[in-house]
Design a protein that fits this description.
10 helices; eight-stranded mixed sheet
C-alpha cells in the first residue's frame, strides 16, 4: 500500500521545540519521512536540521551536547556579547543578542547553507516588522532566514534580510501549516503551551505575566490559522511546563517528549491508516420510473 506525502509543520515555543526531534524519531520508527517542512522560530531551526539530512539521533545528541555544560554555554555567549555599552541597554530586558551569531555558536556543523542544497523542501516563517505580516523564506541563504525566524523581541536583535527588518515568526504565525507545499497528510506540532493554571488565584510576576500573555496571544493566532489551514493531525508533546528560554533543561525536555513517544507513534500511524483507507462507495442512485 502506498504511503502519503507528509507535510510537517513545526511550531514556535523556544526550548520546548526540542520536542520536535522526538516527533521526527516517531516518524523514523514508523519508516516515514516528511516530504516538505515548514517552521516558525525554533521549528525553523529543527526543520533546517531535518531538511539538511540529519536524523533524530544526531539532532538529539547535538542538542544535549550544546547545553550540557553551563560554563561552556556562558563562554559561547560571552564571545557574542554586545561590545558597546549602549547596546547593553537597547532592550527592555537588557542586551539583545545577534540571532545569526547564536546559530553559529550553538548549531552543529554539516547544515546546508542554502535552500537549494536541502534534501527536503523547507519554508521558514518570519515576521516583517514594518509591514506587520508573515514572510515565508524558501530560497537563498538559510542562516539569515532562520535567524529572522527566531528573533524573539527583547531577546534577539531584529534581523535585516533583503533590506527588510524581521522579527520572530511566532508574532504572526506560531504554527505554519499554511506555509507547507501541497501534500497528502499535514502533521502539525504545537509546543506553545500557556500560563500555569495549577493555582488560578496566584498573581504572576512581571516576566511570568508577560510570557503568559504572549502564549495566550500565540494560542489565539494558532486557532485562527488552523481554522483556515487545518492539519490532518495535530500533535502536542507534553513539554509545555518548560519555560521558553530554559535550554539548560534540554535533557529534561527531550525526556518528557520521549515518554510520550509511543503515543505519538500511535497518533501518526492512525492518521496514515486513515489516509490509506479507501472511502466507502457511494450508494447507486435509483432511477425514477417513467
Amino acid at each position: 500500500m502506498s504511503e502519503p506525502t507528509i507535510g510537517l509543520a513545526l511550531g514556535g515555543g523556544g526550548a520546548r521545540g526540542l520536542a520536535h526531534i522526538v516527533v521526527l524519531r516517531a516518524l523514523e520508527d514508523l519508516g516515514l519521512r516528511p516530504s516538505c517542512l515548514s517552521g516558525t522560530s525554533i521549528g525553523s531551526v529543527i526543520g533546517w536540521g531535518i531538511a539538511s539530512g540529519l536524523d533524530a539521533a544526531t539532532m538529539r545528541e547535538a542538542s544535549l551536547a550544546a547545553f550540557s555544560d553551563s560554563r561552556e554555554v556562558a563562554a559561547r555567549l560571552w564571545t557574542i556579547r554586545p561590545r558597546r555599552m549602549a547596546d547593553w541597554f537597547a532592550g527592555l530586558g537588557g542586551a539583545q543578542l545577534p540571532a545569526e551569531a547564536i546559530l553559529t555558536a550553538f548549531l552543529p556543523e554539516g547544515l546546508a547553507e542554502d535552500f537549494s542544497a536541502l534534501s527536503i523542501p523547507l519554508r521558514v516563517v518570519a515576521t516583517d516588522f514594518h509591514e506587520a505580516c508573515e514572510v515565508v523564506f524558501d530560497s537563498g541563504p538559510l542562516k539569515p532566514a532562520v535567524a529572522a525566524s527566531i528573533a524573539i523581541p527583547m531577546v534577539f536583535k531584529p534581523v535585516l534580510v533583503d533590506g527588510r527588518v524581521h522579527v520572530d515568526g511566532g508574532v504572526v504565525t506560531p504554527l505554519p501549516t499554511g506555509a507547507l507545499d501541497p501534500c497528502d497528510l499535514v502533521i502539525a506540532v504545537d509546543i506553545i503551551g500557556g500560563p500555569d493554571g495549577e493555582d488560578p488565584g496566584r498573581i504572576p510576576g512581571g516576566s511570568e505575566s508577560f510570557i503568559g500573555a504572549m502564549q495566550i496571544m500565540m494560542q489565539t493566532l494558532t486557532r485562527a490559522h488552523l481554522a483556515v489551514h487545518p492539519p490532518q493531525l495535530l500533535l502536542k508533546p507534553p513539554v509545555t511546563q518548560f519555560k521558553v528560554l530554559n535550554f539548560f533543561k534540554a535533557a529534561e525536555i527531550v525526556a518528557a517528549a520521549e515518554a510520550d513517544l509511543e503515543t505519538l507513534k500511535r497518533q501518526i500511524d492512525g492518521a496514515v491508516s486513515a489516509w490509506q483507507k479507501p472511502a466507502p462507495p457511494r450508494p447507486a442512485r435509483r432511477r425514477k420510473s417513467a
